[in-house]
Amino acid sequence: MHVLIIGASKGIGLETARQALKAGHQVRALARSAAGIEISDPNLEKVSGDALKAADVEAALAGVDVVIQTLGIAGGDLFKPVSLFSAATRVLVAAMAAKGVKRLICVTGFGAGDSRASIGFLQKLPFKFFLGRAYDDKSAQERLIKDSGLDWTIARPGILTNGPKTGRYQTLAEVSKWRNGLISRADVADFLVRQIEDRTYVGQAPVLVN
C-alpha cells in the first residue's frame, strides 16, 4: 500500500514509518523536518511540508491509499493554548475529500473524546492540569474525524514509553473495558501498521494499553 504518515519525524510517527517499511509498504513521510529522518530505504519518500498548509497536504496525498496522522507537541506547549491537532485535522479531512482518499488512521490518546469519562477519580485533576489543553483539542480533532465521512480508525494509547515492540498490548474497543495504562510507542506503531490493511476497527476508537 502507499501510505502517507503525517508527523513522521519522531516518536510514534517515526516508529510507524520504520514498521510500515518493514511490512513492505511504500511510505511517504510528511514533516517540516522530513529531511532529517534517519531512515534510508528506497521505499521511503521524505517530504518537507507543513501539516497546517492545505497545499502541502494535498500535494502529499497524490497516489496515496492510506493516511496515518501522528501529530505531537513539545512538553512545554502543554501549558499554552493548543490548536495544532484540530487545525491540522481540519486541513487533512478537507484535502482527503478533495483527493478522494478514504482511509484515515489517527493517534489521539486515552482521555480524548468520550474516553475522558473513563479516567479514574484520582487521575482526573492531574490530567486536567497537565494535559487538559492538549486533550481538549484532541477531542475536537476526534469530532472532526468522526464527522468526516472517511473510513477512520482512532487509536487512543495510554501512557507512552520508549520500550520495545512486544505485540502483547491490549486493544480495548468496548467502553466498559477502557482504562489507562502503559504502552510503548513501538507497540502503538504496530497497531497503526496493522490497520493499513485490516478494517476491523474502521469507525472505532479503541484504547491501547499493555
TrEMBL record:
Q: Which Pfam family, just one, is annotated for this protein?
A: NAD_binding_10
NAD(P)-binding domain location is 7-198
Any one GO MF annotation of this record: riboflavin reductase (NADPH) activity
Q: Which stretches are annotated as coiled coil?
A: none
Q: Which CDD domains match?
A: BVR-B_like_SDR_a
Annotated protein name in UniProt: Putative NADH-flavin reductase
